[in-house]
Write a structure and sequence with these properties.
187 residues, alpha/beta, Rossmann fold, globular
Length: 187
């Protein structure tokens, strides 16, 4: 069975993006193996401590390497990628062997999907920025800028994410695209 690793860009325990990850996991878990990456202990990227990787970074890289695909679900902070997520991506984009850029990183050619829960923009700014970043990192971006959920005043008041039937249908289409893509890759 293929494995999708969910990476949530928010560090808040019950963030809207964490809630979306849980909803997507419940929609997809009968078709693929799923897990959520915990990367809270990953230090700020620093070449002075890069090799050998700190233990927490090595564990995160192992989980990412063992996944067939990644699904990044992130808020936008000032229209951009949250710092903790960008830091994680910086670590993941580095070569496994010091100075060996020809072999590349563990995420080179890794399948990735993007979603966002944000204000009225539905995360369009972060999805655009993240799409460009992931392509530069030579990842295989499925569904380009992915999908977004716009938060209403009711969401902010209740702190509970609800998604409409139309949004569920869009997510199901994304899920089908992702599973179809993963079905043709070896491993």
């Amino acid at each position: 069975m293929k494995k999708i690793l969910f990476i949530v860009g928010s560090q808040r325990k019950n963030s809207f993006n964490t809630q979306l990850a849980q909803k997507l996991i419940s929609m997809i878990s009968d078709r693929v193996e799923t897990a959520v990456l915990n990367y809270q202990d990953v230090p700020f990227f620093n070449e002075d401590i890069e090799y050998p990787n700190p233990e927490c970074v090595a564990k995160v890289k192992e989980q990412v390497n063992n996944a067939h695909g990644l699904w990044i679900i992130t808020p936008e902070y000032n229209g951009q990628v949250p710092g903790s997520l960008k830091n994680l991506l910086d670590w993941l984009s580095r070569p496994e062997e010091k100075g060996n850029w020809t072999k590349g990183s563990i995420i080179k050619n890794k399948a990735v999907m993007i979603s966002s829960v944000a204000g009225k923009s539905a995360g369009v700014h972060v999805r655009t920025s993240l799409s460009s970043l992931l392509k530069a990192m030579r990842m295989n971006l499925i569904d380009d800028q992915g999908s977004g959920v716009a938060l209403s005043n009711e969401h902010f008041a209740s702190q509970i994410l609800t998604i409409s039937e139309k949004e569920k249908d869009l997510f199901e289409q994304q899920i089908q695209k992702f599973i179809q893509y993963l079905s043709v890759i070896p491993k």
